[in-house]
Amino acid sequence: xxxxxxxxxxxxxxxxxxxxxxxxxxxxxxxxxxxxxxxxxxxxxxxxxxxxxxxxxxxxxxxxxxxxxxxxxxxxxxxxxxxxxxxxxxxxxxxxxxxxxxxxxxxxxxxxxxxxxxxxxxxxxxxxxxxxxxxxxxxxxxxxxxxxxxxxxxxxxxxxxxxxxxxxxxxxxxxxxxxxxxxxxxxxxxxxxxxxxxxxxxxxxxxxxxxxxxxxxxxxxxxxxxxxxxxxxxxxxxxxxxxxxxxxxxxxxxxxxxxxxxxxxxxxxxxxxxxxxxxxxxxxxxxxxxxxxxxxxxxxxxxxxxxxxxxxxxxxxxxxxxxxxxxxxxxxxxxxxxxxxxxxxxxxxxxxxxxxxxxxxxxxxxxxxxxxxxxxxxxxxxxxxxxxxxxxxxxxxxxxxxxxxxxxxxxxxxxxxxxxxxxxxxxxxxxxxxxxxxxxxxxxxxxxxxxxxxxxxxxxxxxxxxxxxxxxxxxxxxxxxxxxxxxxxxxxxxxxxxxxxxxxxxxxxxxxxxxxxxxxxxxxxxxxxxxxxxxxxxxxxxxxxxxxxxxxxxxxxxxxxxxxxxxxxxxxxxxxxxxxxxxxxxxxxxxxxxxxxxxxxxxxxxxxxxxxxxxxxxxxxxxxxxxxxxxxxxxxxxxxxxxxxxxxxxxxxxxxxxxxxxxxxxxxxxxxxxxxxxxxxxxx
Length: 684
Ligand code: ADP
Ligand code: MG
What we know:
Strand content: 15-25%
Bound molecules: adenosine-5'-diphosphate, magnesium ion
Distance between the termini: 28 Å
Largest sheet: 7 strands, parallel
Strand order of the largest sheet: 11-12-10-13-14-9-15
Helix content: 25-40%
Oligomer: single chain
Number of helices: 23
Radius of gyration: 28 Å
Structural class: alpha/beta
């Protein structure tokens, strides 16, 4: 079935769907709801307590009247149940008055408090039977892209599902019984339009299982391929690393040293290294990666380090240059990123293929550009969770066919070891579980907007001491609920709030790579005092002179992401501070955010986050920057993950009884999954 055959899809809508990455019916039904709405029982006007979307039952005292006000056409009436009263406003809908009688009715819309009064905005009028039908039903709330409404998505998905069965079951009955999994078609239907919460949960469990299952099968495949790989590099010399260590102003922590030894040992063994280095933000993973690269270089091999953002790649490049210079080591480094000009790229590629470069640092360009490496013995991905497993494999595949490189990946995502072992089943793991000794713990506070002037004064004070500050605020999302401050506007406001001599820069994802780099360089070089930014600075950025991190709308972020952001400060010898600005308007302090006040430990925060969300809470604030499954959550769905692993092992070892039909279907779905993985749509 084609999308354009659906009712409501004209050329324009088709384009919008395509822009959102939806090309087929299949794509459409795999856009799962991000949440569900249910119509709670109607309230009477006197019962309102919270600003939210509600259904109210009552009648209009008098017919609503339409007025012009500030260029707006407002239709207003007083709605009551004989006791409480609220005002109802419609904008630019004068015709609505005609459909209102003096009878009792249901209205559904958002209520807000204006002074002492409750006002209901732009409500829909529901008939009794409409209301009864919707009561207690779960309705999908879809993640929306530009121009697509929830109503449209709901209608399209429902049309698709009315057509013939879209998925064919691939899991043997025995499996489904063993793991208590719903049938595939049932799952797809019920994830979109569940009759009850129970149905939704069953559907969800099955789909989560599928996601993990395909992931695990693919990880198994990769692991199998790798175990066969022999190490054909020879490592002996270890002078340069020692020299570099001597020139450092600090000595490595025990955990860094242990990790480094594990890496050296791997690189010298018969088999290729496949190692994950896990360490909290600021634990010093970068220097370990650099030392591994230097080890390769002094033994005559190339190595390449891939970072998820341009800003980070440039930063790594510059700090490695500096380190080499300081220690008098004579190796060549080259930078390769997407924003470089064609000519610059060509030159970089030439240096690489001629082996004039010993070490290469870059972004995705390292795998996208036509780079031919020479004797590439080591590939490293920084902030691994930002890349798919498949991209990691493509990266490693950049080496000559008969000479596969060692693979090192680094991640700050605090995944409990048991989960890490499953998710990164194809990797050995080193944990850097110790922070450098000179660190002064960051001081944290969660505050509300009343504190804003103080926060600004504090930033100013730190700047006067010669320090720098970050202010994080997210881009406006289209979603109406979220009133995030626009970065640009915010920067203007901040300019007014701070003294004019304070140099403020701004950074957001829409800027060109070159502009981003320039701003980041200015901040790193202390030509800026304050950097207002979206979460693009989240990963890896290192400016030790920055001591204040203020996060606007902290309530909107996941705890682990907040922890990552906070990790941008506290990197030097100065006392650092993190201010979490809670703009939710809630009176009591958020329990979730206070976790951040209590602790600076990423693992603790991840486990508290899990505890607070509870194993059933899938639709809270999604963590950003983790392995992103469509539905599955590696923390809350850990139990299903284990089942999927078990099932994948059974299938992989061909111990499962499957019909030919099922096997064919599984193969088909698995290759579709891996294709998507190659395009980085799914976590693999
Ligand atoms: P992350 O693990 O988050 O990537 P980085 O590698 O960026 O952390 O290191 C953070 C900061 O700590 C850097 O400024 C780095 O120079 C410094 N650092 C790394 N190791 C040590 C150490 N053993 N002692 C003191 N400072 C260190
Ligand atoms: Mg890092």
